[in-house]
Design brief:
Elements (H helix, E strand, L loop, with lengths): L1 E8 L2 E8 L1 H18 L12 H31 L4 E7 L14 E9 L12 E7 L3 H14 L2 E5 L7 E10 L2 E2 L5 E7 L7 H5 L9 E4 L1 H4 L4 H8 L13 E12 L5 H8 L7 H36 L6 H11 L8 H23 L6 H18 L7 H13 L1 H20 L4 E7 L1 H7 L4
Parallel strand pairs: 5-12
Antiparallel strand pairs: 1-2, 2-4, 3-4, 6-11, 7-8, 7-9, 7-11, 10-11
Helix pairs in contact: 1-2, 3-8, 8-13, 11-12, 11-13
Length: 450
């Protein structure tokens, strides 16, 4: 057996594995013997069938399997032992000649290897990078207070519809000015006109009262959104196109959502009983949490600026774009060509990954299991908070975080988030920060130019 490696270009490698029969035959014979032990062959007891019959039955398949296993083992053994800076995974080369497993004894397998480019990247106090601090004004705290109050709204019966109210009533499919025979007839259907896509349909409810009958077209109201329509009409999404006409809606109940009062009951529902004792503490708690979230956002922005700064400092890197395009397509579940725009985005992300990994090593950043767990718990808390659920007990947060970490895609994303959070913290002590205080609006505007 022989393994050789050459570099046709700085961005690509060609790895060739040559096998002789003696390299794989012992493993083939071992597998044939193992198969023979339990083979059911008419006329012979298990384990006594002639090897010639076993060879004819499964020999080629076992040979192919053992050759493939040996090639894979030697391929990654060479790449790992020689620390080849591979990008993605090996691909069969177009220089590969056809191999006949049945007829040949000797084989040659050729692989294309995309190589990571060499580059220099060192950051120090000589490097000056912007860092934005967000000012949290009282008006932003007030907005959050009112948001909490709205989330804890309670329904109150009303006689006249106002924007944002919830309606309940009978929804009947029409044909002309009469109910459609065999059509949809829902005795109690809930509607929130505020969330209709079509403004003309929304206006039909202006000033509506209990008992009024309004003719609407759900398909128009919800812009043919099959998910919305199937939920409202209680039908399958595939059936939505069969019900594009008018419906009558007789209002039987109007519920006006009244925001919660800013009192102890609201404080307890958000942060737990007794955690906040008065409105002053409530607002201070909100401002503190907003500050923590804003700090994370500022760190994220800082890392984006580090990425741009480092990319400019490193300059253009050499990649084999054609080979990368093949690797991306080979990894994709979709049978489609990779566009130039998609390739450019992938190359840009790859460049950052290489630079980030270099910076992680230079800064001595390592991720411990406990840190990953804390990142997952933080993500879990944020998800619950989006639905107005604060003060969730740690045991529930921990269980939810563990579930997130069992999902490979979520785990990878959380690892990246945790590493980049640590990298941002480390780099703030390495480079010189050009600090600037900005409002939330000014901070958000920064992302419009990215």
């Amino acid at each position: 057996m022989n393994v050789s490696f050459e570099k046709p270009t700085n961005a690509s490698g060609l790895l060739t594995i040559s096998l002789e029969k003696a390299d794989y035959q012992p493993a083939v014979e071992k597998e044939l013997k193992n198969y023979r032990k339990n083979a059911q062959v008419p006329g012979f007891r298990p384990g006594n069938a002639p090897m010639s019959i076993i060879q004819k039955r499964v020999g080629p398949a076992i040979k192919a399997e053992q050759v493939q296993r040996l090639v894979n083992d030697e391929l990654y053994k060479y790449l790992n032992e020689n620390k080849v800076p591979m990008l993605g995974h090996p691909l069969s080369s177009d220089k590969q000649t056809p191999q006949d497993i049945d007829a040949q004894d000797d084989f040659e397998f050729v692989f294309d290897i995309a190589l990571a480019p060499e580059f220099e990247l060192k950051l120090s106090a000589d490097d000056k990078i912007p860092y934005y601090d967000i000012k949290i004004g009282d008006e932003k705290v007030e907005e959050q207070v009112q948001a909490f109050a709205r989330r804890a709204s309670r329904p109150e019966k009303a006689e006249t519809y106002t924007d944002g109210d919830i309606l309940r009533g009978a929804l009947v499919e029409m044909e002309g000015d009469k109910p459609k025979e065999g059509g949809i007839d829902i005795e109690s259907a809930s509607l929130m006109p505020k969330y209709m896509s079509n403004e003309e349909q929304k206006k039909l409810f202006d000033g509506a009262k209990v008992g009024d009958v309004i003719v609407i077209n759900p398909s128009v109201a919800y812009d043919n959104n099959s998910a919305e329509l199937s939920s409202l009409l209680k039908i399958e999404k595939e059936d939505v196109d069969n019900h594009k006409g008018d419906f009558s809606y007789q209002i039987s109940e109007i519920s006006h959502m009244v925001p919660a009062e800013i009192n102890q009951e609201l404080f307890d529902s958000i942060y737990g009983e007794g955690a906040v004792k008065d409105e002053k503490e409530f607002r201070e708690r909100i401002k503190k949490e907003m500050g923590e979230q804003m700090a994370a956002d500022c760190d994220y922005r800082f890392l984006l600026d580090v990425r741009k700064y480092a990319s400019d400092k490193v300059g253009q890197l050499e990649f084999d774009n054609d080979l990368l395009r093949r690797i991306i397509k080979d990894s994709s579940k979709e049978e489609k060509e990779i566009t130039d725009e998609e390739l450019a985005k992938s190359v840009d992300a790859l460049k950052w990954q290489l630079m980030r990994d270099r910076l992680l090593v230079d800064c001595g950043v390592k991720l411990e299991n406990e840190e990953l767990k804390q990142t997952a718990m933080q993500a879990a808390r944020f998800q619950f908070a989006q639905y107005g659920m604060s003060g969730i007990p740690d045991e529930y947060i921990e269980n939810y975080a563990e579930t997130m970490l069992k999902d490979d895609n979520q785990r990878t994303a959380l690892i990246d988030r945790a590493l980049e959070t640590k990298l941002s913290t480390a780099l703030k002590n390495v480079v010189t920060l050009k600090r600037k205080k900005v409002t939330i609006e000014e901070f958000n505007d920064l992302f419009k130019n990215d």
